[in-house]
Amino acid sequence: MLLKIVLAMVAFAANSLLCRLALKGLHMDAVSFSGVRLLSGAVALYLLLQLPGMRRKTEFNVLNAALLAVYVFAFSLAYVSLTTAAGALLLFGTVQIVMSGWGLARGERLTGLKSVGMLAAMGGLALLLLPGAGHPSIGASLLMMVSGAAWAVYCITGKKVRDAAAATAGNFMLAVPMALLVFAFHGMSIEADIYGVLLAVTSGALMSGGAYLLWYSLLPKLSPTTASTLQLSVPCLAALGGLVFMSEALDGRMLLAIVITLSGIGLVIAADRRQ
């Protein structure tokens, strides 16, 4: 289970890097990137369900598909005007508040160890991202918070899913016509080069379709507070990815923040195992 969690978080972080590369490098516009991302995920998951041993009836859920589409489009559109740090803070801060609030409202109890772990993880994330967050625009900030809320609810509803592959495939397939509506409203214009298309396809087919399927299979086994806290590792992994793949600097403050965040997440996992 721990290996699956690590793989899912690494894929989430890779999505952030791919989106940054495509949008900041002007290889693709945000709407086209989001549309290709959803279409690629839908195609990949459909093909997966055709494999021997994987054949099953696709499960369609309009609400979950809409939440997925809102998350993807709001995420990309917000990042056009936000720094990576500001976007990550707003996104994962919203996810943490919504999912933890839902868990506590449903009667989830926090032990002392889990509370310390959550506070450490959030403190480490703030230390990592606040110095570079700057002063984001109100419109872009609201878009990223909408994206975070949509993703949080998508994760909450995912706890009830029985067949992760069938449900995730159905969500992506239903999200495609929704993406076409957004694309039509945008004027049917595409600004992309081949590099941008490749980034969007990789993000959709592997880092979204495959990773969300994996994440959906894990959610029934995780409490809302644990699931939200685990995702605080994504900005840390993205920072490390930026160091490796984009030659970004890693100073002492960032390294300390990453250690604190991941240590806090470790305490949350340890608390769950005790319970």
UniProtKB/TrEMBL annotation:
<feature type="transmembrane region" description="Helical">
    <location>
        <begin position="194"/>
        <end position="215"/>
    </location>
</feature>
<keyword id="KW-0472">Membrane</keyword>
<feature type="transmembrane region" description="Helical">
    <location>
        <begin position="169"/>
        <end position="188"/>
    </location>
</feature>
<feature type="transmembrane region" description="Helical">
    <location>
        <begin position="112"/>
        <end position="132"/>
    </location>
</feature>
<keyword id="KW-1133">Transmembrane helix</keyword>
<dbReference type="InterPro" id="IPR050638">
    <property type="entry name" value="AA-Vitamin_Transporters"/>
</dbReference>
<feature type="transmembrane region" description="Helical">
    <location>
        <begin position="31"/>
        <end position="49"/>
    </location>
</feature>
<feature type="transmembrane region" description="Helical">
    <location>
        <begin position="227"/>
        <end position="246"/>
    </location>
</feature>
<feature type="transmembrane region" description="Helical">
    <location>
        <begin position="138"/>
        <end position="157"/>
    </location>
</feature>
<dbReference type="InterPro" id="IPR037185">
    <property type="entry name" value="EmrE-like"/>
</dbReference>
<protein>
    <submittedName>
        <fullName>DMT family transporter</fullName>
    </submittedName>
</protein>
<feature type="domain" description="EamA">
    <location>
        <begin position="141"/>
        <end position="269"/>
    </location>
</feature>
<keyword id="KW-0812">Transmembrane</keyword>
<dbReference type="Pfam" id="PF00892">
    <property type="entry name" value="EamA"/>
</dbReference>
<dbReference type="GO" id="GO:0005886">
    <property type="term" value="C:plasma membrane"/>
</dbReference>
<dbReference type="InterPro" id="IPR000620">
    <property type="entry name" value="EamA_dom"/>
</dbReference>
<feature type="transmembrane region" description="Helical">
    <location>
        <begin position="252"/>
        <end position="271"/>
    </location>
</feature>
<keyword id="KW-1003">Cell membrane</keyword>
<feature type="transmembrane region" description="Helical">
    <location>
        <begin position="61"/>
        <end position="80"/>
    </location>
</feature>
<feature type="transmembrane region" description="Helical">
    <location>
        <begin position="86"/>
        <end position="105"/>
    </location>
</feature>
